[in-house]
């Protein structure tokens, strides 16, 4: 076929420029895919050569993830099936979060002073006890206390486990340990969230039981899963440390890092409370999705995140931890705020939700490794717990406000917009505070 492009200089230039641009984009996408697959292989290779203790922690994380999937995605659906209003749900979330805050005040300190293993086991027992309480008849007070117990568990578990993992790997390899641990955790969360959202509506549709009864069986299974990690963690060794006044390790530099991270963490926590735990009911009541459709949307998103966590540690070596975290979080806001305006297509909503979740959460292993690396070893659990207290305070306050913002109308765009604005603000603060604070293994670290 004869082409006249070569006879028209302007058109020829445009064609060449378009081809060059297309080739450049293709090369970049291929490069990202290559780095991603290489990152996944590097993370899997680290796990293959990991110690027995590391493997026990990773296996336990699968079951803690399964429990987290129920508490994060299914709990609100359970409460809605029991005819709690959005205002009551917001208040229960807030009350439970406040109870969990108390644990932040002492959990990290005790983990650093008494031992991370003991505190982690205590937290796992609290979480299991809270899940058992959800099996009791409907009660605003009892369910608030039950959620409070699970909050106590997660409040002491996360800083103790994160600091403990920091003792098991070198600074340079830490992100790979966190990557594989987060992968297993997310795998458990994905499976439990899918089954927890999918099964009860199917049982109701087939007239086998009521919707709320179906959720009760889900929480029974979650309670059983909650006891399994105790057996794994019990077998992990811990090096005893001599007594030491922890306050001495919070020097001026550490106090500065602590306050900076705490402030930006509070902003992120406030944004999260407005939308993130409400997503299942937003999809069902706000966008008329069925239970199986909601389960599928969340499962696809969580699966993408799990495999992303295998690949992302390698990217931090190229781009730097702070830059990677900041860019991913800010870019995640665009698909987030588009969700309420895309209710005409559930497929589009699912794609936006997956993109948002992947971008916002994929830097998590890199963030955890970065924090553990820049904080003095002796106070890691205390630092993580106290800084997370900032997040919890903001989350609790915003949770109460969120119930009134939604006002039983789960299609409103305002909470999404406010959430996005807070995410951008928190990400900008993170970059401003930490762009010059490097990890010990980086060249020229401060």
Provide an overview of this structure.
This protein is 79% helix and 0% strand. The model is unreliable at 1-15 and 18-36 (pLDDT under 50). The chain is mainly alpha-helical and 446 residues long. The protein is built from 16 helices and no strands. The protein has a single domain, classed as Growth Hormone, Chain: A (Up-down Bundle).
What's the gist of this structure?
This protein has 446 residues and is mainly α. The protein has one domain (53-235, 251-434): Growth Hormone, Chain: A.
Mean pLDDT: 83
- The rounded distance between the terminal residues' Cα atoms is 63 Å
Q: State the total count of DSSP E strands.
A: 0
Number of domains: 1
**Which regions contain 5 or more consecutive residues with pLDDT less than 50?**
1-15, 18-36
H/E order of the elements? HHHHHHHHHHHHHHHH
| CATH level 1 name | Mainly Alpha
Which structural class best describes the helix and strand composition?
Answer: mainly alpha
Shape: globular
Largest sheet: none
CATH architecture: Up-down Bundle
List the SSEs and their pairings.
Blueprint (H helix, E strand, L loop, with lengths): L8 H40 L3 H30 L4 H29 L1 H18 L6 H27 L7 H32 L5 H24 L17 H24 L3 H9 L3 H29 L1 H11 L1 H6 L7 H16 L2 H11 L5 H27 L7 H21 L12
Helix pairs in contact: 1-6, 1-10, 2-6, 2-7, 3-4, 3-5, 3-15, 4-5, 4-7, 5-15, 6-7, 6-10, 6-14, 8-15, 8-16, 10-11, 10-13, 11-13, 11-16
């Amino acid at each position: 076929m004869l082409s006249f492009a070569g006879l028209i200089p302007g058109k020829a230039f445009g064609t060449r420029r378009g081809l060059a641009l297309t080739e450049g984009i293709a090369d970049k996408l291929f490069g990202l895919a290559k780095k991603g697959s290489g990152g996944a292989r590097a993370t899997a290779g680290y796990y293959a050569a990991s110690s027995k203790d590391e493997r026990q922690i990773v296996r336990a994380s699968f079951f803690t993830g399964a429990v987290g999937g129920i508490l994060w995605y299914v709990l609100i659906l359970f409460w809605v099936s029991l005819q709690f209003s959005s205002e009551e749900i917001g208040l229960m979330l807030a009350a439970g979060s406040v109870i969990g805050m108390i644990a932040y005040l002492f959990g990290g300190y005790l983990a650093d002073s008494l031992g991370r293993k003991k505190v982690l086991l205590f937290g796992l027992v609290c979480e299991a006890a809270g899940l058992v309480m959800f099996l009791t008849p409907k009660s605003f007070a009892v369910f608030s206390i039950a959620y409070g117990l699970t909050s106590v568990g997660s409040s002491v578990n996360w800083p103790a486990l994160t600091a403990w993992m920091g003792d098991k790997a070198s600074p340079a390899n830490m992100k790979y340990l966190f990557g594989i641990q987060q992968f297993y955790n997310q795998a458990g969360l994905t499976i439990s969230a899918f089954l927890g959202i999918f099964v009860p509506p199917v049982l109701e549709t087939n007239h086998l039981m009521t919707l709320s009864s179906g959720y009760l069986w889900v929480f029974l299974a979650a309670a059983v899963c909650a006891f399994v990690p105790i057996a794994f963690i019990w077998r992990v060794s811990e090096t005893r440390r001599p007594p030491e006044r922890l306050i001495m390790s919070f020097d001026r530099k550490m106090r500065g890092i602590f306050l900076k991270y705490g402030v930006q963490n509070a902003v992120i926590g406030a944004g999260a409370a407005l939308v993130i735990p409400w997503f299942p009911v937003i999809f069902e009541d706000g966008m008329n999705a069925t239970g199986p459709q909601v389960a599928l949307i969340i499962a696809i998103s969580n699966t993408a995140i799990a495999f992303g966590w295998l690949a992302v540690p390698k990217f931090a070596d190229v781009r730097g931890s702070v830059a990677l975290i900041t860019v991913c979080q800010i870019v995640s806001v665009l698909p987030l705020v588009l969700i309420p305006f895309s209710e005409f297509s559930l497929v589009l909503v699912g794609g936006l939700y997956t993109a948002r979740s992947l971008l916002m959460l994929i830097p998590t292993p890199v963030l955890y490794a970065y924090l553990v690396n820049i904080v003095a070893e002796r106070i890691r659990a205390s630092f993580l717990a106290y800084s997370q207290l900032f997040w919890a305070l903001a989350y609790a306050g915003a949770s109460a406000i969120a119930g009134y913002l939604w006002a039983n109308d789960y299609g409103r765009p305002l909470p999404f917009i406010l959430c996005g604005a807070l995410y951008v603000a928190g990400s900008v603060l993170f970059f401003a505070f930490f762009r010059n604070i490097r990890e010990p293994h980086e060249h020229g670290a401060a």
